[in-house]
Amino acid sequence: MEDNLNDQTIPEEEPENLELNEVEEKSGIEELDPDLRDGETHWYVIHCYSGYENKVRHNLEQRIDSMGMKDRIFDVVIPTQEEIEVKDGKRRTVERHVFPGYVLVNMVMSEESWYVVRNTPGVTGFVGMGNEPTPLRSDEVSQILRRMEAEAPHVKVSFKVGERVRIVDGPFNDFRGTVAEIDLDRTKVRVMVNFFGRETPVELDFLQVEKS
What we know:
Elements: E1 9-11, E2 41-48, H1 53-66, E3 73-77, E4 80-87, E5 90-97, E6 102-108, H2 111-118, E7 123-126, E8 128-129, E9 132-133, H3 138-148, E10 154-157, E11 164-167, E12 176-183, E13 188-195, E14 198-205, E15 209-211
Parallel strand pairs: 1-5, 4-10
Antiparallel strand pairs: 2-6, 2-7, 3-6, 4-5, 8-9, 11-12, 11-15, 12-13, 13-14
């Protein structure tokens, strides 16, 4: 069955013709709370326009390099996760953004580093209370990174329990039935099929069924 799978990794599409320079923020509008300058390295979350995460990361990395901030801004991460999408009898691997519209930045907060990040084209602000960026807790960071490093991609199917599906492969080809159970770990689905006047459970691979 695996030989028949059409596997390909497809990056999540981004909107075209984006002119992020048009949204450059004016400096001096906001000021960083002095209490936040503790000299410690933390992970912060910045908000941007959904779908523009990769462009914002690219712009920020360029600013870090050109403005000599590598000693204060260390990493820019877009939380993503591989997802196996099963649709129309085909399987493809897609890279999905875990938190659309958000980017993580590992940095030492200071007036200068805050300015570089906050005034990056496409960044609409830090996540926090008012003008006070709130760093993520260590357990929150660990959870996000573990999710990104998961070995087994998440499986996404177009049908759910209780829905009608049509079998498109195997001895029950063209039979219709109702989804009774979905096993994501084994990529199997159990369908109740009317066979000789009786409801009979049939276990099938995800690729053998489609939404009716």
